[in-house]
Amino acid sequence: MSNPTIAIVGSGPIGSTYARLLVERVANAHVVMFEAGPQLTEVPGESVRNIPDPAEKARAREMSQGPQAGAHRESLGIPAGTVTEGMFTARQGTHLLDFGGTGSAHASSFPAAAAATNVGGQGAHWTCATPSPAFSEKIPFIGDGEWDGLIEDAKQLLHVHSAAFADAKVGEAIRSLLDEEFGAELPEGYGVGTLPVAGDPQPDGSVRWAGADVVLGPLIDKENPLSKRFELRDLTLVRRVELDGHRVTGVTVQDLRTGETSFVAADLVVVAADAFRSPQLLWASGVRPKALGHYLTEHPVVISTVALDAEKMGRYATEEDLKAELARRALNPADPVAAVNRIPFSEPEHPFSVQVMYSETTPFPMEPGTPNSQNRWGYVNMGYGMRKHPRYEDAVTFNDNEPDYRGFPNMTIEYSLTERENVEIAQATERLRRAGKALGAFVAEPRLMPNGSSLHYQGTMRMGETDDGTSVADPWSRVWGYDNLVVGGNALIPTATAMNPTLMSVAIAVRGARKAAEELAS
Ligand code: FAD
Questions:
Q1: What is the DSSP letter of 3?
Q2: CA of 121 to the centre of ligand 1 (A)
Q3: Which structural domain, as residue segments, surrounds residue 310?
Q4: Which of 77, 101, 152, 222 is least surrounded by CB atoms within 10 angstroms?
C-alpha cells in the first residue's frame, strides 16, 4: 500500500509503541495519534516525575485528571456541570471512573478504578517498575524464544535498567535482610534483587524517568526525518471507529478546544485508550465481540510501610553509607524514590510479585512524637501483588441508554474476589508481616487495598489463540473478524499475573505492530 494513513487512539506507552514501529517500518506511512487529554510538558509524554518545580508538577497532575481537573476542567472539554462530589481521592494525575457526579461510571465493587487523560496517558504518572512476566504469567501461545526477544525489544523502547540505584548501600542492606528471611524458600534465579525500572540513570545518581516520550523517540525529535510522518493531536477525542462491513475506514474525532467533529480516513486504526475506554470505544462503534469488557482482572495489592531498624540495617551498612545516601537524596528532593528492590513471581514457590521502595519519608504525614515518625534510617513502602484468576462475570459493561460525562455508553463494573484469591491474599499478608519484622517496625500495618487500586487493569480485550468467544483479539492483536482494527494495552493480557504489566503490554504491542507493518507494506 502506498502512503498509508494510520490512526492511533491514545498516546500512552502502547499507542506510542505502535506509532514508533509503524513509522520506522512502513516507508511513507503517516501516523496520526489522537489524545483526548492535554499535552503537559514541552517534550510530549514526558514523566511528570521529572518536573523539578513542585507547583508545576502539581499543575501537570491536575491537568491529567479529566472530570476531576478542578479549575482546568472546562478547558479540557469536560462539560460544565460535571460534578465530582462524594469521591475519595484518586492517585495524583489520575481520575476515578466512579467519581459520583453526573455521567459517572458505576463501580461500587471496583471503586478505585482510575484513568489518566493527558499526552503520555498513565505513562506520564507511572512508577516505572518493569518486571518481566514469568511462568504462567506469560502468553501461552507465544513461544519462549520469540517472547524473550519481544521482551528485550520492549525493554529497549522503555529504557529499562535492571540495576538503577543498585550501588546504594542502604538498598543492598535491605536486600540482605530480606534474603536472610526468605532466601532459602525462593528458587534459583528468582531471589531478592533490584527492581528493573524504566528510566535513564543520571551522573548525579538520580534517574530521568521514562514516559511515552522515550518510546516515541525519533518521532518527537524535530531534527529527525521520521518526525515528518508523525502527528500528535492533543485534546482530540475519538468518538467512533468507522466501519464498512468488516473493514475500518477511519475515525470520527472531536476537537475539544472548538467542539468541532470531523472524519479522518485511515488504512489502519489502533485503539490503545486503556482497559476501560478502549472497549467502551469499540462498543460505541458497534464492535461488540462476546468477550469485550469481560475477564477483567487486576492484581490485588497488600501494602504496608516499615521504619528501618538501625541495629538490623547496621549489620550490612555503616553510618557513612547512610550519610552518603542522604547526601545523594538531597540532590533531588523532588523525587523521593531511592533504592528499589523486589522479590519476583515464581511458581509454585512464590506466586507473588513484591516491590520494596526505599524512601527517606513516609508517603503519608506522621504526627511528630508518634513512634518512628523521625526515623534516621528511613522507610520502605512494600507491596505484594497477587493473582486474580480471569472469570467472564468480572466485567465492564456499557449502557447505550445512559450517556457518561463524555456522551459514551456509560460503564458499569462488576467484580469480586473469590476463595482462590483470598487464600493467596492471606498468604501474602503473612509474608508481608515477616518482611516487615525482618526490616524494622510497621508504621502502617499490612492492608488490602480496595479493588481497582493497582491501576493495572487487564483482560477486557484479551487476546486468544482461536476465535472461540473467550477473546477479543487474535495473537497479533487484531480484533477477530477485522483485518485493519488493532487493539493494544494491558486489556490484552489473558493470563493471571501478579506484576506490573506495562513491559508485557509493550512486548505484545511490538508483535502486533510488526505484523501490521508487514501487512501494510505488502
Ligand atoms: P494509558 O497510558 O492509560 O494511555 C491511554 C490514553 O488514551 C490516555 O491518555 C487517554 O486519555 C487516551 N484516550 C482514552 N480514550 C480516548 C479517546 N476516545 N480518544 C483519544 N484518546 C483517548 N505500570 C507498570 O508496569 N509499572 C508501574 O510501576 C506502574 N505504576 C503506575 C503508577 C501510577 C500512578 C499509574 C497511574 C499507573 C502505573 N502503571 C504502572 C500503569 C501504566 O502506567 C500503564 O500500564 C500504561 O500507561 C498503559 O499504557 P497504555 O498506553 O495502554 O494506556
A1: S
A2: 4
A3: 160-209+301-385+419-448
A4: 222
